[in-house]
């Protein structure tokens, strides 16, 4: 339990800086006049290297243990934060975009090393056969992470208005460096390493269920990020006239609510089906998301469409949180302990692919047809996720 607390605490600290960094970069460069597509490019390598990191991170964790991947992730985030603080308003747009993309690439590697390490550690620390306990601890870790990421969004907006861009980054780097030192001194036990060597070909899951779940995950998280990453913040600023603080606060509230629902998902689902989630559970909840997003797409340009959008996105957040919690449980339930780092790495590689697609398409679809274009494409992605979810089998 002590190791679980250590790993979770490190993940929480990292998550605060990750959420704050996203808002700092987005709001700072939007205020400098960058287009929605250019802003999306700033996050492109962040997501791309998440794909690579999740794939190779699972292999590294399997060989050398999760302690190494966790501390490496924290260290890289400190380097990325200090690097981003060097950006100057006097640089040309090409130089600024290129440099920020490079630093965001480091941050993307850091984020997925830390996430893969934390979620894999749960499987290793929960007693074999305790499926209800596994679902509870996974949901708690993931839900608390997203709640804190929402706090990070709010923190980013506040820091930008009070300390400015560079000083905010230095402050976060210092705080994360303290967490890194604490982990190095306190987490003595190695986690997740095995004596059996994993070949490169084994980095790609051979499990039908993991592959199906991963494919569904690509389109599930792509669907969210299509409207969330660039489309919604730009819409709130350009169309609804919100300030940076108001945008940061709304984004924070959405993610905090999402995290609270995600952490409560085990109790919510258990009250209705009296058991841990099954393949059909994932299928049902993504189907609900398809319907919600289709309704929002149709309603956004009607009278009071702005408020329908905001309320509808809150409902989307609650249902999406249940989807994500069910997925996070199923990937661990479908895998064996000796393959956990590799399978979780592969699965979150798929998650990163979805976020990569969603980030790129968020800027493109908003420039093409505004928030309506983002929502329509999101509905298409969710329908594809439902197709893959239909083939998931139930646990024995």
What can you tell me about this protein's structure?
The protein is mostly helical and 396 residues long. It has one domain (2-187, 203-389): Up-down Bundle (Growth Hormone, Chain: A), CATH 1.20.1250.20. The protein is built from 13 helices and no strands. Helix 1 (2-31) runs parallel beside helix 4 and helix 4 (66-84) runs antiparallel to helix 5 (93-125). The longest helix has 50 residues, at 340-389.
Spell out the helices and strands N to C: HHHHHHHHHHHHH
State which percent range the strand residues make up. Answer: under 5%
In angstroms, what is the radius of gyration?
20 Å
Which bin fits the share of residues in helices? over 70%
Give the tally of structural domains.
1
> In terms of structural class, how would the helical and strand content be classed?
mainly alpha
The CATH topology, please?
Growth Hormone, Chain: A
Ranges where pLDDT stays below 50 over 5 or more residues in a row are none
The separation of the N and C termini measures 28 Å
- Within CATH, the superfamily carries the name MFS general substrate transporter like domains
Topology (SSEs and partners):
Elements: H1 2-31, H2 36-42, H3 44-64, H4 66-84, H5 93-125, H6 131-162, H7 165-186, H8 208-228, H9 231-238, H10 244-273, H11 279-299, H12 305-333, H13 340-389
Keywords:
single chain, 396 residues, mainly alpha, Growth Hormone, Chain: A, 13 helices, 82% helix
């Amino acid at each position: 339990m002590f190791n679980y607390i250590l790993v979770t605490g490190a993940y929480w600290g990292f998550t605060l800086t990750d959420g704050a960094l996203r808002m700092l970069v987005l709001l700072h460069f939007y205020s400098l006049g960058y287009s929605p597509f250019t802003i999306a490019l700033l996050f492109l390598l962040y997501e791309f290297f998440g794909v690579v990191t999740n794939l190779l991170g699972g292999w590294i964790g399997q060989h050398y243990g999760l302690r190494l991947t966790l501390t490496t992730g924290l260290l890289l985030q400190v380097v990325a934060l200090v690097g981003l603080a060097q950006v100057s308003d006097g640089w040309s747009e090409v130089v600024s975009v290129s440099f920020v993309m490079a630093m965001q690439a480091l941050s993307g590697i850091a984020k997925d090393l830390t996430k893969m390490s934390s979620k894999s550690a749960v499987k290793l620390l929960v007693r074999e056969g305790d499926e209800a306990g596994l679902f509870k601890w996974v949901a708690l870790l993931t839900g608390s992470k997203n709640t804190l990421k929402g706090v990070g969004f709010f923190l980013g907006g506040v820091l930008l208005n009070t300390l400015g861009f560079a000083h905010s980054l230095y402050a976060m780097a210092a705080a994360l460096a303290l967490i890194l030192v604490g982990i190095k001194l306190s987490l003595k036990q190695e986690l997740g390493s095995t004596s059996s060597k994993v070949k490169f070909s084994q980095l790609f899951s051979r499990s039908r269920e993991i592959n199906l779940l991963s494919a569904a995950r690509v389109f599930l998280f792509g669907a969210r990020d299509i409207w969330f990453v660039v489309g919604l913040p730009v819409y709130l600023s350009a169309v609804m006239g919100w300030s940076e603080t108001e945008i940061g606060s709304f984004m924070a509230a959405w993610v905090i609510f999402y995290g609270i629902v995600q952490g409560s998902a085990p109790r919510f689902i258990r009250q209705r089906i009296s058991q841990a989630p099954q393949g059909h559970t994932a299928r049902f909840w993504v189907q609900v998301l398809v319907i919600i997003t289709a309704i929002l797409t149709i309603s956004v340009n009607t009278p009071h469409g702005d408020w329908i959008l905001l309320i509808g996105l809150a409902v989307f957040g609650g249902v999406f949180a249940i989807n994500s919690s069910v997925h996070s449980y199923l990937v661990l339930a479908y895998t064996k302990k000796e393959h956990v780092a590799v399978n979780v790495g592969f699965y979150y590689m798929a998650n990163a692919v979805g976020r990569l697609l969603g980030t790129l398409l968020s800027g493109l679809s908003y420039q093409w047809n505004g928030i309506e274009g983002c929502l329509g494409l999101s509905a298409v992605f969710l329908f594809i996720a439902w197709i893959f979810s239909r083939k998931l089998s139930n646990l024995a």
